[in-house]
């Protein structure tokens, strides 16, 4: 890994903690009055960001051969396909 | 009482069996033709280019162990694309043609809430229960009038079954928690041709347990007036549900074995 | 323990990890299952002789039908192909062995013991009787209550665990150990077909593993997925066919590869349009994941998706057209030699053409509506799958001289083909004629009796033909003529360049295609350092097939000889088999009687056998796992190799990523199930079962543990033993905190809220099942991670990993992945 900086890892870690708290706030903080759809959409965005942070830095995919990223993207795409097509088929 | 709307010959509906037979014939004819050509061509060439122990042709370039496939030139692929293109055209046009008829089969002739008969078909281990609009239920045999579109709502109380009648060319999955739809109609001409009562075998087409093989039933189509007479006699009374005959004579040769239907321990 | 005993010793076959030995084991075991499945097929045919026949009872007939399908598809076709793949892919790509020899052995032993479990299931009150497609809800205990049904499903689960290991192994091998100069497009067609196969397997079998874990939980733990009326039956359909359609090509591709290979060898011609054939193969592999709902046309899925699936289905037939024409044109202008292998390969093509044409019929929805559940389907897929396997029978004859060094008897071989081909068409073509018969029905319309009788005769002829083969091969092995290294006139691939049978380590020197054809080069190996490639004058070369990244030099044991022997793959597989055997009877021998609290609940054990087996199995797994981890086993990575498109990725890391990609699909199946069912039940009618706060705390715990794992890696790199111990220790601690909170939460759900795996006091029971099973599978992942973390901790204490921190890094990849899964599980079950 071209970067073994503890500072960077700590920053990522803090960002992840904040993101997790945000998830919670979206749904549970009544004073903010998000609709369900907003909260759900926001949570998915946050989850995606968290995943990207973990994959890119903790699993250091950022510094690996790009093909590994494509393999994981393919796995994710197939998961989404199964989920979306199956659910769509009964709508 | 339901007003009859006669589906006359010459009107634009076609039985599912008719649609199926047409497509099946077209596919079978083309499939046989293409298959025969391809196989005959292949066999002929395999014979023609057999190794008869003679001298190799001038342009014969024998491969060697350890060669890499790239950079060896390799045979030309022009003919390959021609054949591929032809086969693609055949296959795609077949399916586009079949798709047009699919839309008909899905929709059926114009639905008419007045005259259509809605039957709820429920599969169970191991038989079929039919519920008529008046609430009357029968097991084993479904009795319908000629010249009416019959809509079946098919479901199941236990496992996955498949309700089908090969002669009528109808089939529908019976899935617990789901209701699938299929329609059919029998014309009065057909009923007359079969001697005043047309019968069709019903089978289960999805493995559903140990009685699967014996899970058979029957669809009986009666002339409009006979059916009405029978239907009124049921009076929406579902108590005689086990009385399959319900005033209708069942042709013994139609292989509906009431001992087998529902007689297998669940 | 590194040296292999001689082939005459039984011990050799228990400890071997050599790809050729394992290939032989696979092939022989698969042929045994061919006989097993074949006998079941003959039982079915006997029953069909007369529509009133009752040789087997209804239940026994269903068991025979189910076991025949499962055995032929899973325990025969694929392992048979992978016998050849094991033996010949490393030879064809110029590798010494597969990337992970012990993992390869474990795949085989899992396969064998899963077959044993399946055999045992017949004696556990009858095996599964729900058909090989196991449609829900017939596959749940309410309708198939025997212990053997659970046994069969767990056997299949075990088989798939083995397949996953094998898939990762082949992917890593082909992408990491191709000989120098062998670009990916240069690979022989058989190896290409295996590469496409394992790519499909990686994802398809993972989805099936997810489905089977759910089914196993329904059967063993009492969750209610597949009996749920909120779409449980359709869910099975989706999961099954998402796997099931790629599976058709997974089974067919190796046979296609054999056809492509044999057509070239016995015509003396190179493949016509080779590049386009490879492109077609890749296209099919991708498209195979886009057609699965054509198996569900008669369900309640909507017309839009049906139309889409019809279009993709037709789309997938087109690349096959191209491949078939390529095969035909390859023969033209050749010098075709009608040897036994060629006859089988050619016969396979003819059968496949028929299977393909009848498949187009099924692609048209209107026709499919009628063909669904009939013998048309049965006939079609036998022509495709068994028709394809015909080429693999040819492959036996083709490679027999290479494996044994002896030539088979040509006359008997041709006789086998003639009888086989006749029998094949008699049994399966008659099915087309009797197509209106419903599948898996023996009381059929007497109109079709003549066809079924014809088919039964054909089946016996077909079965008999294999005894000619067994006799031929047996006799030739004992007293056949010596075959020499290359008995065929026009062979091209590298396995024919070495002796028959090939030496243990395959090559005299390092194989290289750098010059455009196969050569064996001697490498200069300085003492204790990595091999250095030299050119003809002995100068050190500066560029290789791969950038020799620094990881190569990290291997500390350059002077070591590769290891070949290990008993732990066998022992580990046995332990897993024992555990799964125990699980099969768990639901019938252990009852939990819930009281007011956990302490007041009772566990009643009615039969000690099964719980004991579970405990013994778990103990065995832990013991053999530790032994495996501490064994001194050396499998050197290939130094000069073509690795496109994974240049510069270290071997084990590559394997790890492939494994994680498949695990994505396992969780993908479970999460898809959760969303599908909830959507079907009405999304907004469900509220989270759990309080969000414990979930949030656990999110923090897990994220922190991910951070400590990263710290561990940094500590290992900085060679700080203290730091490594501290960060690994914190990770373990955090893992236990996570599990403790989870246990508290489950306890709270069960005893305070009345939510158990099969009951829900607040709503649909299926919601409770989904919650427990999904978070439970995640919990098992955490638990497995903890076991590995403790192992690493102890080894660190003993002084390891400071020179070579890769195990810490790879453990981290897994641990972070488990963390990511939680990132999605948390909102889905605690917030949405």
Write up what this structure looks like:
Chain A: It is found in: Cell membrane. Chain A: Keywords: Cell membrane, Membrane, Transmembrane, Transmembrane helix. Chain A: InterPro entries: Cyt_c_oxidase_su4_prok (IPR005171). Chain A: Its main location: membrane. The complex is a heterotrimer of chains A (91), B (266) and C (832). Chain A has helices at residues 6-28, 36-58, 66-89. Chain A has 91 residues and is mainly alpha-helical. Chain A is flat and about 40 Å long. The relative contact order of chain A is 0.10. With 266 residues, chain B is of the alpha+beta class. Chain B folds into two domains: 4-50 and 61-107; 117-265, Immunoglobulin-like (Sandwich). In chain C, helix 19 (651-681) runs antiparallel to helix 22. Chain C has 23 helices and six strands. The two termini of chain C are 54 Å apart. Mean pLDDT of chain C is 93; it is low at 540-558. Chains in contact: A-C, B-C. The interface between B and C is large, with 87 and 106 residues.
Largest interface: B-C, 87 and 106 residues
The H/E string of chain B reads: HHEEEEEEEEHEEH
| Backbone shape of chain C | globular
The helix/strand class of chain C is: mainly alpha
The largest pleated sheet of chain C is described as: 2 strands, antiparallel
Organism (chain C): Halorubrum yunnanense
Membrane topology (chain C): Multi-pass membrane protein
Keywords (chain C): Electron transport, Heme, Iron, Membrane, Metal-binding, Respiratory chain, Transmembrane, Transmembrane helix, Transport
Subcellular location (chain C): Membrane
Q: Keywords for this structure?
A:
heterotrimer; A: 91 residues; mainly alpha; 3 helices; flat; B: 266 residues; alpha+beta; Immunoglobulin-like; 2 domains; five-stranded mixed beta sheet; 30% helix; elongated; disordered N terminus
SSE map:
The complex is a heterotrimer of chains A (91), B (266) and C (832).
Chain A: H1 6-28, H2 36-58, H3 66-89
Helix pairs in contact in A: 1-2
Chain B: H1 16-48, H2 78-107, E1 117-124, E2 127-131, E3 137-139, E4 141-145, E5 150-156, E6 161-165, E7 170-174, E8 180-184, H3 188-193, E9 198-204, E10 216-222, H4 224-234
Chain C: H1 10-15, H2 19-48, H3 58-93, H4 101-121, H5 147-176, E1 178-179, H6 189-220, H7 232-267, H8 274-287, H9 303-331, H10 340-363, H11 365-371, H12 375-404, H13 410-433, H14 449-479, E2 510-512, E3 519-521, H15 550-554, H16 568-584, H17 586-589, E4 590-593, E5 602-605, H18 609-630, E6 641-642, H19 651-681, H20 692-717, H21 721-752, H22 765-797, H23 806-831
Antiparallel strand pairs in C: 1-6, 2-3, 4-5
Pfam families (chain A): COX4_pro
Protein name (chain A): Cytochrome C oxidase subunit IV family protein
Organism (chain A): Halorubrum yunnanense
């Amino acid at each position: 890994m071209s970067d073994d900086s503890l500072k960077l890892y700590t920053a990522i870690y803090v960002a992840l903690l904040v993101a997790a708290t945000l998830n919670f706030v979206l749904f549970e903080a009544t004073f903010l009055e998000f609709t369900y759809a907003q909260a759900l959409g926001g949570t998915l965005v946050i989850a995606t960001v968290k995943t990207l942070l973990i994959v890119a830095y903790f699993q250091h995919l950022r510094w690996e051969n790009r093909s590994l990223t494509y393999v994981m993207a393919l796995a994710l795409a197939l998961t989404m396909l199964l989920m979306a097509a199956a659910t769509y088929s009964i709508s | 009482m339901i007003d009859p709307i006669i589906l006359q010959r010459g009107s634009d509906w076609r039985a599912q069996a008719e649609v199926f037979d047409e497509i099946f014939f077209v596919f079978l004819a083309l499939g046989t033709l293409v298959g025969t050509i391809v196989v005959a061509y292949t066999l002929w060439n395999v014979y023609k280019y057999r190794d008869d122990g003679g001298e190799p042709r001038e342009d014969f370039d024998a491969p060697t162990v350890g060669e890499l496939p790239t950079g060896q030139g390799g045979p030309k692929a022009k003919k390959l694309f021609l054949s591929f293109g032809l086969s693609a055209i055949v296959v795609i046009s077949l399916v586009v043609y079949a798709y047009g008829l699919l839309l008909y089969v899905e929709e059926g002739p114009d639905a008419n809430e007045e005259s259509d008969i809605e039957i709820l078909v429920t599969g169970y281990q191991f038989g079929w229960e039919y519920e008529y609009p008046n609430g009357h239920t029968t097991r084993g045999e479904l009795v319908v009038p000629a010249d009416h579109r019959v809509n079946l709502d098919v479901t199941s109380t236990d496992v996955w079954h498949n309700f089908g009648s090969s002669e009528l060319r109808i089939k529908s999955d019976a899935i617990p928690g789901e209701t699938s739809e299929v329609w059919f109609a029998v014309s009065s001409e057909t009923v007359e041709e079969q001697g005043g009562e047309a019968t069709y075998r019903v089978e289960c087409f999805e493995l559903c347990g140990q009685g699967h093989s014996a899970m058979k039933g029957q669809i009986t189509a009666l002339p409009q007036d006979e059916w009405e007479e029978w239907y009124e006699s049921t009076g929406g009374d579902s108590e005689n549900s086990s009385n399959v005959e319900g005033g209708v004579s069942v042709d013994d040769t139609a292989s509906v074995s009431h001992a087998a239907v529902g007689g297998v321990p669940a | 323990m590194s040296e292999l005993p001689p082939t005459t010793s039984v011990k050799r076959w228990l400890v071997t990890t050599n790809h050729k030995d394992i290939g032989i084991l696979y092939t022989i075991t698969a042929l045994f299952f061919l006989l097993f499945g074949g006998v079941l097929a003959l039982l079915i045919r006997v029953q069909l002789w007369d529509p009133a026949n009752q040789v087997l009872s209804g239940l026994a007939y269903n068991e025979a039908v189910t076991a025949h399908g499962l055995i032929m598809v899973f325990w025969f076709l694929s392992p048979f192909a992978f016998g050849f793949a094991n033996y010949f892919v490393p030879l064809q790509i110029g590798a010494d062995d597969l990337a992970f020899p012990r993992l390869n052995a474990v795949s085989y032993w899992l396969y064998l013991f899963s077959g044993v479990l399946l055999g045992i299931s017949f004696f556990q009150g009858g095996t599964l009787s729900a058909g090989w497609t196991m449609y829900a809800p017939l596959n749940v205990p309410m309708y198939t209550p025997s212990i053997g049904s659970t046994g069969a499903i767990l056997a299949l689960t075990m088989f798939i665990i083995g397949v996953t290991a094998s898939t990762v192994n082949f992917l890593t091998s082909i992408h990491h150990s191709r000989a120098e100069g062998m670009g990916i497009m240069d690979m022989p067609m058989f190896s290409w077909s295996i590469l496409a196969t394992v790519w499909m397997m990686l994802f398809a079998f993972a989805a099936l593993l997810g489905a089977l874990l759910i089914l196993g939980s329904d059967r063993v733990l009492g969750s209610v997925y597949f009996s749920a009326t909120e779409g449980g039956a359709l869910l099975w359909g989706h999961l099954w066919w998402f796997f099931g359609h790629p599976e058709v090509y997974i089974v067919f591709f190796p046979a296609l590869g054999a056809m492509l290979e044999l057509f070239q060898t016995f015509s003396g011609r190179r493949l016509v349009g080779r590049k386009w054939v490879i492109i077609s193969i890749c296209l099919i592999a991708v498209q195979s994941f886009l057609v699965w709902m054509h198996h569900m046309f008669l369900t309640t899925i909507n017309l839009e998706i049906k139309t889409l699936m019809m279009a993709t289905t037709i789309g997938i037939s087109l690349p096959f057209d191209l491949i078939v024409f390529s095969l035909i044109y390859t023969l033209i202008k050749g010098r075709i030699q009608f040897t036994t292998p060629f006859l089988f390969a050619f016969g396979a093509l003819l059968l496949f053409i028929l299977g393909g044409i009848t498949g187009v019929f099924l692609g048209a929805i209107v026709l499919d509506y009628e063909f669904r559940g009939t013998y048309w389907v049965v006939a079609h897929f036998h022509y495709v799958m068994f028709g394809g396997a015909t080429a693999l029978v040819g492959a036996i004859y083709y490679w027999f001289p290479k494996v044994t060094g002896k030539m088979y008897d040509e006359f008997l071989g041709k006789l086998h083909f003639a009888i086989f081909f006749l029998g094949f068409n008699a049994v399966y073509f008659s099915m087309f004629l009797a197509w209106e018969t419903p599948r898996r029905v023996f009381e059929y319309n007497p109109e079709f009796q003549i066809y079924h009788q014809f088919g039964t005769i054909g089946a016996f002829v077909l079965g008999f033909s294999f005894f000619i083969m067994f006799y031929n091969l047996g006799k030739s092995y004992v007293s056949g003529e010596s075959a020499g290294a290359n008995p065929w006139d026009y062979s091209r691939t590298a396995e024919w360049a070495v002796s028959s049978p090939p030496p243990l380590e395959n090559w005299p020197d390092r194989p290289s295609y750098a010059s455009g054809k196969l050569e064996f080069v001697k490498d200069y190996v300085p003492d204790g350092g990595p091999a250095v490639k030299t050119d003809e004058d002995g100068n050190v070369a500066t560029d290789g097939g791969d950038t020799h990244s620094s990881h190569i030099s990290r291997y500390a044991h350059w002077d070591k000889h590769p290891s070949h022997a290990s008993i732990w793959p066998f022992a580990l597989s046995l332990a897993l088999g024992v555990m799964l055997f125990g699980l099969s009877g768990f639901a019938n021998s252990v009852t939990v009687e819930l009281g007011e609290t956990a302490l007041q609940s009772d566990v009643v054990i009615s039969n000690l056998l099964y719980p004991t087996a579970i405990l013994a199995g778990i103990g065995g797994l832990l013991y053999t796992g530790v032994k495996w981890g501490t064994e001194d086993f050396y499998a050197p990575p290939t130094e000069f190799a073509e690795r496109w498109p994974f240049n510069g990725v270290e071997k084990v890391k590559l394997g790890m990523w492939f494994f994680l990609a498949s695990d994505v699909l396992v969780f993908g199946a479970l999460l898809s199930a959760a969303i599908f069912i909830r959507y079907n039940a009405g999304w907004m009618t469900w509220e989270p079962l759990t309080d969000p706060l414990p979930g949030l705390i656990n999110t923090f715990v897990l994220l922190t543990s991910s951070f400590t794992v990263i710290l561990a890696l940094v500590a290992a790199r900085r060679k700080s033993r203290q730091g490594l111990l501290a960060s690994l220790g914190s990770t373990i601690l955090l893992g236990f905190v996570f599990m403790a909170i989870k246990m508290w939460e489950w306890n709270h759900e069960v005893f305070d809220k009345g939510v158990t795996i099969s009951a829900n006091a607040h709503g649909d029971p299926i919601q409770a099942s989904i919650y427990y099973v999904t978070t439970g599978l995640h919990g098992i992942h955490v638990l497995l991670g903890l076991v590995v973390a403790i192992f690493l901790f102890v080894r660190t204490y003993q002084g390891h990993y400071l020179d070579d921190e890769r195990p810490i890094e790879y453990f981290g990849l897994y641990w972070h992945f488990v963390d990511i899964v939680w990132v999605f599980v948390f909102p889905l079950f605690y917030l949405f």
